[in-house]
Amino acid sequence: MDKILVTGTAGFIGFHLIKKLVKENFEIVGLDNINNYYDVRLKYGRLKESGITGNIEYNKFIKSSNYSNYRFIKLNLEDKENLKRLFQKEKFDYVINLAAQAGVRYSLENPQSYIESNIVGFMNILENSRYTNIKHLVYASSSSVYGLNKKQPFSTKDCVEHPISVYAATKKSNELLAHTYSYLFNLPTTGLRFFTVYGPWGRPDMALFLFVKAILNDKHINVFNFGNMSRDFTYIDDIVESVKRILKVIPERIENVHDKDFSPDSSNAPYKVYNIGNNSPVRLMDFIETIEKKLGKKAQINFLPLQPGDVPSTYANVDELVKVTGFIPETSINKGISNFIDWYKSFF
Prior knowledge:
The chain has 348 residues and is α/β, with parallel strands linked by helices. It has 11 helices and 14 strands. The strands form 4 sheets. It has an 8-stranded mixed beta sheet with strand order 3-4-2-1-5-6-7-12, with helices on both faces. Helix 1 (12-21) links the parallel strand 1 and strand 2. The longest helix is centred in the middle third of the chain and has 21 residues, at 111-131. It is globular. The model has no long low-confidence stretch (mean pLDDT 95).
């Protein structure tokens, strides 16, 4: 039975990925520092749903009461010594790094936390993966790396040299560091550029959560760029299915390849980057209208200018993902929003 380390398992994507992986033939260790970037009650709620209950102490394992093949440990990625001991003791076969300081707008307020978590923490993941001969390191990047790119749909074969937020810059840095480790130390790495993930148990700083909460409580919602925005909204189940399939698609070093044959998402190193998106951007106002129909209530809207760090639209080219996995993310916003609102009403 292969052993997988999944970081960020009290987070939105990590929580759902655990529910997917425990059904496979894996032994799983989940890791999270349970920081207070948003309401920790939601994080503890996700952990409880995964069978992680009781007194959660730092650097102490807890066995899941729901899944015999799942254990959890509270740990910071920046904690170099304890992370090293964890890797040396557990001898993981695979690592899926989803832990990060999230949020584009918050990165304008507190950039230092992004450097510590997303760069220093990721560097520690790379170092330990290198020295313990991990078969495959899969890590979360972001659609935000496309920054000022204008050509759409966004392709991993396009250069991404103009990020417009600290968050995006740290994710681009992750891809550069991963390529360096892949090239120098033959460490197979795959970066996944997630596009606007949504669904049950989602983050409370994301649009869907904010909109539903405000509409139900007769509060105004803020709609930026005066509503002239679109997003490639990607349902959480499509995200985790893609991650599960990518785990076993391990990049290999390619010999006798000329520089002219390289593209930004690959080289002769065992390195790859994929987009994971719905390949179908939705106008923000249509997204809001779908929420209104499900709730049976109209939104009260404050139209505001485009915010620093935001881009007007995102649109993923997922040809490479489909090519290697045979999977197409395509959950409709009608189904995805309905599932989220059902969960929201039940949880709150």
